[in-house]
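Q: Structure tokens for this one, please.
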Amino acid sequence: MTKDRIMCFRGCVSEARDWNSQDGASLSTWRRPIGFWPLNADYTYSDISGGGNHGSGFSVSLTTGHEGVGNTAYNFGGSVSSYIHIPNNGQLDARYSWTFSAWVYNGGSTQGPLFSFHFPNSVYDDFGLLIWQYPDTTTLVVAPRSRSDGAVSVAALYGSGVLTSNTWVFVSVTYDYTTGDMTIWKDAEINTQSNIGQVEHATQYDVYVGSRYASYNSDTRSFAGSVSCIQWYDVALPQAHIRNARQLCVPEALAKYLCDGAVSVAALYGSGVLTSNTWVFVSVTYDYTTGDMTIWKDAEINTQSNIGQVEHATQYDVYVGSRYASYNSDTRSFAGSVSCIQWYDVALPQAHIRNARQLCVPEELPYPVGWWPLESSYKGTDVTGNGNHATLSSELYPTHGPFGGKNDAYALAGTINSHIVIPNNGKLDVRYSYTFTAYFMPKGGNGPLFDYDTDDPSHTWGFHIWNHADPNNLGVYHFDRSFVNRGSTSVSFFADSVWSHLAITYDYASNQVYYYRNGVLVHSWNPTQQELATAA
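A: Here is the predicted structure, written as tokens:
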């Protein structure tokens, strides 16, 4: 690009894809805990996350929990022999980002482990990542340790006033590897925060709660008080999810935690969903965050009910038509036909259910030739396997995405040094027909959204899509293989500081270009038929 044409897009981008046919939008999910110990009479020291790291208790006793209900917490006596040992089969190794949460009642101790990873290196006192009450009755400390040898890696973070004597407190600690932020929370509100940089944590060995004397007998410090509902995640939960985690610990929520197949809530009935001798597209969704369960008929709501936050019994095999083979006391069976069963680990919104319905057409759906989620988990990775991994400049930073998720998009600053570079090993040369989709949120700028460079120094333009001339305008420019502009069109498309899903399609055979905003056709164009400059 020549210097007299320096223009930059300012705004946010997420989930960019390049296809040679159309497809639906992407989905996001919320992570489950990788370790969950209710620490009550029903589950004792069992890990109900499914990870299999069931604990063992020593000289601890059941006591009244934070809701005032008996036998819903364990009391630690404040001696080296009073502790819970949690083995680690590898499932608890969070390493990068993580969240610890628990209800804690300080019974008067001044220092002791609440969630302390072991690391077998006596040179550094056998410490892994440690979360302790220390050095007084009210302070919580979190101290990262080196993953390679257990050495002190960064300064510890102290949360003053987190604990209160003889009072239940919901304690959380989060670490976000992408941002480097470590945060201590009290009752789902931030107590203190520090940026410690990107650290890989020593979380690969066993955990001790109450005392670590059994693993390191030179340390006689111990916790006196009570603990319940320990949760451990391999992601840094945002505040809203910490509040949800806090609600998991009430007795009613645990009663709904479907680990044994017991009926937890009333069934939901969708009257009139099925019609005799007629094909119907049936969907059922459940959103854990909102508690809403919905039955859909042909992508329209039939009935809905809020059943609260429930963890479902979905860990075993599935039967369709009859379950007699697994339970021969039940002889009921379905008569009819079924096709295109789909099962997602997220509650699809209506637009995505409509997309899912289209997946059931007989034609084979193509796979994208390039797909860049552009979120902190993937950064610039091309997840198609074609190897065109993007390079993100230093002036990009993670931001909230189109569905509100933290670090689910990247913000561009509107400067020449704020950009994404995608190489092209030939797999991105669509040449004839194409589909481009992405989420964009412009914030006033003028620059490329998807711009093919050229290898010919005498030509500066290939096929390109721009936010051009006006902050709300979208332009598509068809340059042929000789780098000659064969036509372009521009349309008012974006709204400032509002996420929009953009899709542009071109079919070489029909010679039609279509623009879609949030799945709705907003513009069409009939250009000169050509093979496009998408090789470089």
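A few notes: The radius of gyration is 28 Å. The mean pLDDT is 85.
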